[in-house]
């Protein structure tokens, strides 16, 4: 069965797909029932949800929680987060409240320019194509008007169109770079539609009959870029170092602040630390993006490319100290949408945006970056005080107890026992063995 190639899987009914895959689960006699149990009972909702993807046989549930008290520019948000790691939500919540009580996070800068490219080879005279660029540009922009009317009406549209020499990538290669404002939509479909229209227009513009050498213009591809260095948000938070007394774990606040600043400095200069540092940021960012129906994979790719934009991989966030004021900040690329796509189709994504007060895309960028910075601050604070494992594993105690099928009485005893002890899988197993023997 495991070596069998199946043809026409997509043409099978939902039940037939589920039955076929269940046969692969030799160690689980109830696989098909498990797949079924994670689907909605209401037939209409179930059909709607299954149609969101391809070859769907079930749904994969991720815990949906709230990080309360995220204050951004004076407004308090209770932010939905879709993530299975309890420590991320707990840490973001704790950090958010700490900063909310000290003025919260402040958006310092937002830019929302998105990019797309048409790559093509020009086999004719390079002088000719540059001479014709002005006419070609007008031709392309005029054609795009039929596609951009609605976007322009909403306040967006084409910002610029340029032709760039890309011969450092491949011989005779050029690219058209389109800069776009998509307002509250992420805009991927809009941008790709415009780019593919431009690719078609290139063929029309350079069509030459009876050319013995073949076509002089050869389009390679037309695609938006998920690298969005001009679609970024900067968020900061500041307070006097004396305000860190409640969270400094008995460290002198000057030492705590110095260690915090040093930790951020290390992440700015050591890639081996920067990767984990940025992963901590994306813990929070991805969870909010998932909850609001945004593309967290695109955000991850953009963030890590942005972190390496000067040729060395660095932290996305920073920390400065001036006199007795410590400031943390982050600049991160975020191409998000609050209308269109999955945000309109997924019931929880719609509710997430309602919980946030139906923000604009710019407002959502600030919220997402603030949660990322809150998550990052919480992780660094743990690293320079008690260590990451103490709080992290305590929050995983519940998961371990569930895995071991512990009853409510023994669970209560375990939770009490591990209040001031380090949690590990082996430690929990040992405790349960001692109690039951």
Shape: globular
CATH class of the largest domain: Alpha Beta
Strand order of the largest sheet: 3-8-10-9
Briefly note the CATH topology name of the largest domain. 3-hydroxy-3-methylglutaryl-coenzyme A Reductase, Chain A, domain 2
Count the beta strands: 10
Q: pLDDT below 50 for ≥5 consecutive residues: which ranges?
A: none
Structure class: alpha+beta
Number of domains: 4
Can you give me a brief rundown of this structure?
The protein has 437 residues and is α+β, with helices and mostly antiparallel strands. The protein has 17 helices and ten strands.
Structural features:
10 strands; four-stranded antiparallel sheet; single chain; globular; 3-hydroxy-3-methylglutaryl-coenzyme A Reductase, Chain A, domain 2; alpha+beta; 437 residues; Alpha-Beta Plaits
Protein architecture, described:
It is a single chain. By secondary structure, the chain is of the alpha+beta class. The protein folds into 4 domains: 1-61, no CATH class; 64-108 and 229-387, 3-hydroxy-3-methylglutaryl-coenzyme A Reductase, Chain A, domain 2 (Alpha-Beta Complex), CATH 3.90.770.10; 114-225, Hydroxymethylglutaryl-CoA reductase, class I/II, NAD/NADP-binding domain (Alpha-Beta Plaits, 2-Layer Sandwich); 396-436. The chain is built from 17 helices and 10 strands. It has helices at 14-22, 31-37, 43-50, 86-100, 126-131, 133-153, 188-205, 253-269, 271-291, 296-307, 342-345, 347-355, 361-384, 388-395, 397-403, 408-417, 425-436, and strands spanning 64-72, 75-82, 106-110, 114-122, 157-165, 173-181, 217-225, 232-240, 317-322, 325-333. A 4-stranded antiparallel β-sheet has the order 3-8-10-9. A hairpin with a 7-residue loop joins β5 and β6. α1 (14-22) packs across α2, α8 (253-269) packs across α13 (361-384) and α9 runs antiparallel to α10. The chain starts with 13 loop residues before the first helix and ends with a helix.
């Amino acid at each position: 069965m495991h070596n069998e190639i199946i043809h026409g899987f997509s043409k099978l009914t939902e039940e037939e797909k589920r039955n076929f895959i269940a046969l692969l689960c030799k160690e689980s006699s109830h696989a098909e029932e498990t797949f079924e149990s994670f689907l909605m009972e209401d037939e209409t909702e179930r059909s709607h949800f299954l149609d969101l993807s391809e070859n769907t046989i079930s749904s994969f549930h991720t815990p949906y929680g709230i990080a309360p008290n995220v204050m951004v520019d004076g407004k308090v948000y209770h932010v939905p987060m879709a993530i299975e790691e309890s420590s991320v939500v707990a840490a973001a919540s704790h950090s958010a409240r700490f900063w909310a009580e000290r003025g919260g996070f402040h958006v310092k800068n937002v830019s929302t320019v998105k990019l797309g490219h048409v790559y093509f080879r020009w086999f004719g005279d390079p002088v000719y194509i540059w001479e014709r660029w002005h006419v070609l540009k007008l031709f392309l922009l005029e054609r795009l008007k039929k596609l951009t009317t609605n976007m322009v009406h909403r306040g967006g549209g084409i910002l610029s169109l340029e032709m760039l020499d890309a011969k450092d990538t491949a011989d005779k290669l050029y690219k058209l770079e389109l800069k776009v404002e998509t307002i509250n939509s992420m805009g991927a479909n809009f941008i790709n539609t415009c780019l593919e229209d431009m690719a078609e227009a290139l063929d029309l513009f350079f069509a030459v009959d009876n050319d013995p050498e073949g076509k002089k213009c050869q389009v390679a591809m037309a695609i938006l870029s998920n690298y969005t260095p001009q679609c970024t948000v900067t968020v900061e938070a500041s307070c006097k170092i004396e305000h860190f007394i409640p969270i400094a774990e008995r460290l002198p606040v000057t030492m705590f602040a110095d260690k915090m600043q040093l930790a951020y400095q290390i992440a700015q200069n050591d890639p081996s630390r920067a990767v984990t540092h940025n992963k901590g940021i994306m813990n929070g960012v991805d969870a909010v993006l998932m909850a609001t129906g945004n593309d967290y994979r695109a955000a991850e790719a953009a963030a890590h490319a942005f972190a390496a934009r000067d040729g060395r991989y660095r932290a996305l966030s920073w920390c400065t100290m001036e006199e007795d004021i410590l400031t943390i900040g982050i600049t991160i690329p975020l191409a998000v949408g609050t209308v269109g796509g999955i945000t309109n189709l997924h019931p929880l994504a719609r509710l997430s945006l309602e919980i946030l007060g139906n923000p604009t895309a710019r407002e959502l960028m600030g919220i997402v970056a603030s949660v990322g910075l809150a998550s990052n601050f919480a992780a660094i604070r743990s690293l320079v005080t008690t260590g990451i494992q103490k709080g992290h594993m305590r929050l995983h105690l519940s998961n371990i107890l569930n895995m071991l099928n512990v009853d409510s009485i023994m669970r209560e005893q375990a939770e009490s026992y591990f209040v001031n002890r380090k949690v590990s899988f082996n430690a929990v197993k040992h405790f349960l063995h001692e109690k039951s023997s």
